[in-house]
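Dear support,

I submitted the protein below through the web form. The confirmation email said the job was done, but the results page showed an empty box. After a refresh the structure appeared. I'm attaching both so you can tell me whether what I see now is the final result or a partial one.
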Amino acid sequence: MKKFIFMTVICSLLLTSCFKSVETPIKGTKNLVTYTTKEGKTVGIKFAGVNELLTPAIYVKVECKNGYLLAQRQRTSPAASVTWDLLDAKTAKSITGSSYESISSAPNYFVMHNDKGKYYLKNGTSQAIGPKADIFIKKNLVLTKSGDKWGVNGVFGEKYEQIIVLYQNGQPENYRFVVKNGKQYSLLGSDGKVIKKTVSAQAVKRLEQLAKNYKDQNWTYNTSLSGRTVANIKTAI
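What the results page shows now:
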């Protein structure tokens, strides 16, 4: 009897030692792979062919986007929200040290969201800006909202109730801002300086209506403001 029990233990140990982790290359990285565990429900991250683990096996999936890793964590319970980590694509280290309920990418930026608010991160940096009540990114402009006021990063602070961005036809880098402060609308240059102190509410209403009708389309609108409406924050263009 003792001999039988001893042999059973030996066989069990042999079966356990036979498990071999599966390495799957992460597309877009040089030599990072995901590895499996014998439980088979989650994966971790490591260098290909190296035993040292860069992360524990806590992720459901991992993908490379714009030079970063987007890693979806395993839920702590069936009722828990899905969370994501933003990791360095070379070392698999966390960029911000936080997890997020959602991560979306825009050209040159990532936008992250958790229970504190929204954050944005410029590609190639490690400092997330936020939390903000809302964030809108269009081309090279980052518009942020705190409380009920909007601003444009690097141009002017969050002090306007509404912002409309106008691009000159054929000149995507030549833009203007129509901003609302109280009941007054003003026209600002790309540097945030006032070009026209007062813009009529009727002209703004026409721009808003056209923004709704021509969402995501290229079009021309010939008024004293001229140019093409690209983004109206209130109508979420």
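Response: this is the final, complete result; the empty box was a page-load delay. The chain has two helices and 20 strands.
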